[in-house]
Amino acid sequence: MDDNSIWGGATTLGISLRKAEMNNCVQIHKMQVESFSVLLDKYKDYSTNPAAESIERIEQRMSQEFTDYYFICLSDDIIGAIRVVRLNNHVCRISPMFILPHYQGMGYAQQAILEAESLYPQAKHWELDTIKQESKLCYLY
To answer: For the residues of 66-89, what is the DSSP string, one character each?
Structure first.
C-alpha cells in the first residue's frame, strides 16, 4: 500500500479511498460531470447539480482546510470520488459523492460511505443531501 492509500475497516467489495490532491481537480470535475449529467438533464437544476459546477468551484473547495477529497477506488481503478467536509469536531458532511455510471448500482457507494466513516471516528453525526424523488439514492443514504 502506498502512502496515498487510506484503507478503512471493511473492504469486502475491494473499495478503498485515496486522498485527492489539487492537481486532480480536472479529473474530479470530468468524473463529476459524467456522474451527475443524467440528473442534470432530468431536473434541469443548474444551480445545485454538481454536473453544472466549474473546475474553479472544485479548486475552491479543495483548498478549504476543513475539506478532504478522496478518490473511490476499486482495486487500481478510480470509479468515483467523495468530499468530506468537517463541520466541527463531531459533525461531517458528504458533498458531493459520486460513482461513475458504469459502476453504479453495485454497492460501491455504500462501501465508500463506510470507508469514509472509518476515517473520521470522532464524527458522531453525518449529513448529506440527495434528491427526494430518486428512490435509489434515498435508499442508499
So the answer is: TEEEEEEEETTEEEEEEEEEEEET
Q: How many CB atoms sit inside 10 A of residue 59's CB?
A: 14
Tell me which residue range forms the domain holding 91.
5-140
Query: Per DSSP, what are the bridge partners of residue 66?
Result: none
Domain count for the chain: 1
Q: Which residues pair with 127 in a beta bridge?
A: 93
The span from the CA of 70 to the CA of 75, in Å, is 14
Rounded to whole angstroms, the Cα distance separating 79 from 27 reads 11
Reported as a single tens digit per residue, the pLDDT across 54-107 is 999 999 999 999 999 999 999 999 999 999 999 999 999 999 999 999 999 999
CATH number of residue 18's parent domain: 3.40.630.30
Sign of CA dihedral 71, 97, 42, 48: negative
